[in-house]
Specification:
This protein is mainly beta and 259 residues long. The chain has two helices and 17 strands. It has helices spanning 20-28, 68-76; strands at 31-33, 37-39, 82-84, 94-96, 104-109, 112-117, 123-128, 136-146, 149-156, 164-169, 173-179, 183-190, 201-209, 212-217, 220-226, 235-241, 247-258. Strands 3, 5, 6, 8, 13, 14, 15 and 17 form an eight-stranded antiparallel sheet that branches. The chain has a seven-stranded antiparallel sheet with strand order 4-7-16-9-10-11-12, covered by helices on one side. A hairpin with a 3-residue loop joins strand 1 and strand 2. The longest helix is centred in the N-terminal third of the chain and has 9 residues, at 20-28.
């Protein structure tokens, strides 16, 4: 791992942004049971596919000889390659999946970026158009003001619409999901490190290298996923779900480290 402050920019491919709709439809079809978490939609895009692979938490293998907590401290103590307070959308050229705004709204203020989803079972994604990352760490503060669930979206591939999602809900559980030909829930469980309830700030961190992802909340290691369905590179983003109630999620202090 090397620290590199050079930020590789990819110019927005705006003609291809309608591909966001495909991922949006997949996410909108997910069913969530309060306190239990995501139930996988295993047949979307591939009705003949087998049940999705559920990857349990196991002893960390990435990187060899270094604990996930030590790795976290090493990376997050270094200067980030990018800091975005999310008080406006100009730094990373954020693009909303709901254009024109029919069922949701993205807004900016001194507290950060707010994703407000007012239609039931709808999903709102905001994608950072100027990012194209492979191996990296990303961190953001997430506060669910009302409603259900929100989190990070990363390695969104514009060409294939494959992506990965790390989110948490107000009941105190987190989920790690990925799209390939199906939408897989790779990891889900409650954790006491998550501040449950409305209005509670939680700092989400993802460390991704190759097919392996390490997950953290509030400086606490949650678990590791290694799975071939995790896309290898792409954009980062933010996501909010209206599962049953109008949902408002505030995001602030986004930080990115390149590995």
């Amino acid at each position: 791992m090397t620290n590199n402050n050079a930020w590789r920019l990819q110019q927005p491919a705006r003609k291809k942004e309608p591909a966001l709709i495909i991922v949006l439809v997949v996410l909108a079809l997910l069913v969530i049971i309060e306190g239990v978490g995501f139930i996988v939609l295993a047949v979307y895009l591939n009705p003949n596919s087998s049940s999705p692979q559920i990857t349990p938490i196991s002893n960390p293998t990435f990187p060899p000889g270094q604990s996930p907590q030590t790795l976290y401290k090493l990376i997050t103590s270094a200067p980030p390659a990018l800091i975005d307070p999310l008080t406006h959308g100009d730094i990373l050229q954020w693009i909303s999946s709901d254009q024109p705004q029919k069922y949701s709204r993205t807004s900016y203020s001194s507290r950060g970026m707010t994703l407000d989803v007012y239609r039931k079972h709808a999903v709102l994604m905001d994608i950072a158009a100027t990012t194209n990352l492979s191996n990296f760490a990303v961190q953001v503060k997430v506060t669910i003001v009302r409603g259900n669930e929100g989190g990070l979206l990363f390695r969104y591939d514009v060409e294939s619409t494959h992506t990965s999602v790390f989110s948490l809900g107000t009941a105190g559980a987190f989920s790690m999901m990925a799209t390939s030909n199906v939408f897989n829930t790779l990891l889900h469980r409650p954790d006491p490190a998550i501040r449950a309830g409305l209005g509670q700030p939680n700092v989400l961190t993802v460390i991704a290298e190759g097919p392996t992802v390490l997950l953290y909340t509030n400086d606490h290691y949650l678990g590791q996923v290694t799975n071939a369905s995790i896309s290898q590179s792409g954009r980062i983003g933010l996501i909010a779900y209206n599962l049953a109630d109008p949902t408002e999620v505030v995001f602030s202090d986004l930080r990115v480290w390149k590995l």
